[in-house]
Amino acid sequence: MHFPIKSKSPLYLSVIILLILLSGEGILAQSSSNFEKISLKKSGIAFKNQLKEDSKNNILRYEYFYNGGGVAVGDLDNDGLEDIFFTGNMVSNRVYKNLGDLKFEDKTKSAGVAGKNIWTTGVSMADVNGDGLLDIYVCYSGKENPELRENELWINQGNFTFVDEAKKYGIADPSNSTQGLFFDFDKDGDLDLYLLNHHIEAINELEFSDVKNIRHPYAGDKLYRNDEGKFLDISEQAGIKGSALGFGLGIVSADVNQDGWPDILVTNDYIEPHYLYINNGDGTFTDRMNEYFSHISHFSMGADISDINNDGKLDIYTLDMLPEDNERQKLLYGPENYEQYALMIQEGFYHQSMRNMLQLNQGDGIFSEVGQLSNISNSDWSWSALFFDATNNGKKDLFITNGYYRDYTNRDFLKYKGDYYFKQAIVNEKADTLQLVTSMTSTPIHNYIFENTGYLNFEDRSFDWGFEEKGFSSGSAYADLDNDGDLDLIVNNLNEQPSLYHNISPKKNWLQISLHDNSENTFALGAKVEVFTGEENQILEVQPVRGFQSSVSPRLHFGLDNIDTVDSIKITWPDNSRQILENISANQHITVKKDGSPGSVISSRTSALLGKSDFAPNYSSQANEFNDFKRQPLMLTMPSYISPILSQADLNGDGNPEVFIGGSQGQAGKIMSYTDEGWKDYPSFRSSPEFTDAVAIFEDFNGDGHQDLYIGSGGYHDYLGSDEALQDRLYINDGTGRLTRQTNFPDYKFSTGTAIAIDVNGDGNLDLFIGARLIPGRYPIIPESKLLVNDGKGNFSDQTSDYLPDSGKLGLVTSSSSMDINNDGKMDIVLAGEYMPITILINSGSTFEDKTSAYLNSTLSGWWNVLQSVDIDNDGDMDLIAGNFGLNSQFEASDNKKLRLYGADFDQNGSIDPILECFVGDKMYPYPSRDELLDQMASMRSRFTDYASYSKAQLTNLFTEQELENAQVLEANTLESILLENTGNGFQVRSLPRLAQSFPVYSILPIDLNKDGNMDLILGGNQSHTRIRIGLMDAGLGLVLIGDGKGDFSPLSPSESGLAIKGDIKSILPLYTKSGIQLLFGINQKPLESYTVR
């Protein structure tokens, strides 16, 4: 129930207070709802998209049988009220005239737009003939004869009557169409058409190569150019793809690269990647998807393009079908086939993962995918995505329609279907497809609405805001249906009447803008409007087609929160002319007629702090194809891929730096020297290709004044626990720069994660702490880290038991840092690792004691990758930056929701089983899918004979209480990368900026880039070698954080920092040359890159 306060009389207020007191919590809960569903009786909307399943019409004959219908909104009779058009798959289309006050009249019969008895899909509204009236374009598909499914163009005659003139205009296209998008791609003043189509037959993998370059007459997309009222198919010459692999479901147009020309995003179902067509401005397009995106949604459906963080750049959002809850996830996930995935990449089908994705626009054609960070990656089988300001606070919220009528992807059903077809074939009987269809379960799902809370964060408000009802929804649109200054929602449902949601959010200020162009593009499709409020500026483009099979009103809506007057509005018309409006009062709908002067796109660019250079030596980290999951199928990331590490020294005393570049198995590490003539190989060092270099430290270990080299051996690969390739190495400098490997270095074998040179006993000699990360083949069993004491001559002895707690079994150590924490003149050690608490070891002179609790108020157990000490706040003591796994994944970790990693040989077959237990919702479940679990533990096959039995299983259903008690258990309660600010009495935890949480951090360089006296940070990271289900974690581009000297940081965009590296950054090394500071970046399996500090 909603109580709008209409007056402030004492009597009225007393009644309200009394009602609240009497109603208690109930009234408060109801009044928090932001949307109210309007009844059919009130609205008068009686349309129903009813499907009839029979032997001819069902999901097994037409895979898009349950995709649903579309909805279009626009003022068809120019009376100031938004009208509605619905498409019905197997029923007549309907158009409703808005009578005001959320009442509608069915005008389908008199308007003449009921359509035909053919499978109907999407609908768009646009003024195609330039007469100032919105026309309607309806798309058709299905398996009927092509001539029967020709699309319709209903030309508006005025007075709510229409005539189909699709043939006259040349766009009565017989393709299997999903949606028509009208836009002026060539800026000639009239509207052209991009027709999104889809195939109606599945394509076998063996046919991919044969069909991918052949244009299909009905499945391939088409681009029609409007030549004086006649549309001509120019698809081929314009660069538009049109193969049988096209399963187009979503289309949006926007100026993605901000060059003044409209671009196109097409999302494809199944294996075919998105198309991101960048307008070349000469009548052609280039698909630059693989340049702009690092990975994409797999089973892509609807999409939207909008500036979600008000930074002036358009972000891109695509929908998929990953459920939110554990049970539906486990019923959906099948086996992971790494060979097939690699083949698909090789064939050009790109990196795809099954989840919604938010591509954050970083500028200059660079995007970072942050859907999981933003909490909008899981919304089940989703169709329409719409960004709009639901609360008028100036931030764009997100609405998603949801549901698929049959659980067609249920793994148990798929097995049942295969078995059924096989049995029928054996007995030579025809399969009863209807019987199969009706055997499928049907699970209704509620629609989702997410509140944009800023800082790339969205909160699920579905139940709070009135969207708890479950069903099957498809197309949707937003519009201010009652002209009350906020946006309402219209949803086309399957087998139910449409949902009309009245926005009853608390009132805030707003502004609506309609544009009128003096060309045949009367509604100015493609125009851009920027609203400057003095706070967060907003940008919208006029392009109604968005979501799924639907189009919204061309009227733009801006929420203004508490702002009464807009400082200025800049309109960029489709021909790039500009118009400025100033001091516009809030809470009104204004129509702006074009009155701007022609212009070109003006791009302003600030000078970046870094500049790409050609300084880097000619070295490329060699690619390899080790799959660590073949040894231990339940690991989550591959520890083989750690190279190249970088370290520097002047080995021969000539004043020129030598740089060690770490190798990986199959490629030996090497040293290169830099002189005025450039880079050359350093001849006085030789390593071997069997090693994987994890750590390199240049120090004088034998006290002769020359730099020696310690190399820690890491990796996973095919190493055995006793493999000589796991042996760490010490090379002594003979005084001339020649490095010779020492044969008496202590013999221990594990995969080294970190090492530091530190004088542990105060004798003036540098000793070595060596952190053990793992034992190949036995992850996550904790190995023994080492403390090696130096006799001053470069001879080291293992004194771990004397110095380290727990005989060195400290955790899966990945990083370490030395600092004098308690100011006693002795260097202490801080450690971090995977599923390991940040650990502080205080040096007493004779041993190290774990004093973590004395310096940290809480346990900080994470998936830590790197520690870096630096004085961030200029107070003279060392603070710590800790790089973690990040928040851009499916994993959630907190004190109340810990990640738990169990390690044991549960099935007694001699191999260690790493089982991750994590929260999904409010309960803990084993992370592995059923197939992943059975791949590691075949003994589980008899216990979980189908996917349903495993879908609800918790760890106690897999193992006995005794088995779990006997297992090694590691935990993580945070995945955030953080600053540990040294207060003198301990460390205060501060989160790094939100964008720094979008990728795993593996390297940190403190450096004052802007020369303001405060330390800044460069963060490098990413993790591309993960399980297929996790996907690429590659949102990091080399992130520059500008420090204020007080512990706060501001992230820079790539255009501001100058840094944009695609790949897994494993190391960053500054080199001080005569020409200035050069930064070397070590990128896994890629060439080194270098940047100049300007």
How would you describe the overall organization of this protein?
- The chain is mostly beta strands and 1094 residues long.
- A 4-stranded antiparallel beta sheet has the order 1-32-31-30, with no helix packed on it.
- A hairpin with an 8-residue loop joins strand 65 (1001-1007) and strand 66.
- The longest helix is centred in the middle third of the chain and has 16 residues, at 411-426.
- The chain is globular, with a radius of gyration of 32 Å.
- The protein starts with 9 loop residues before the first helix and ends with a strand.
- Mean pLDDT is 94; it is low at 1-31.
Query: Which residues sit in consecutive blocks of at least 5 with pLDDT less than 50?
Result: 1-31
Spatial order of strands in the largest sheet:
1-32-31-30
Radius of gyration computed on alpha carbons: 32 Å
Note the overall shape. Answer: globular
Give the biggest sheet.
Answer: 4 strands, antiparallel
Task: Supply the helix-strand structural class.
Answer: mainly beta
Count of helical regions: 19
User: What is the tally of beta strands?
Assistant: 71
Distance between the termini: 61 Å
Could you estimate the helical fraction of the residues in percent? 10-25%
What does the average pLDDT come to? 94
- What portion of the residues fall into strands of 2 or more residues? 35-45%
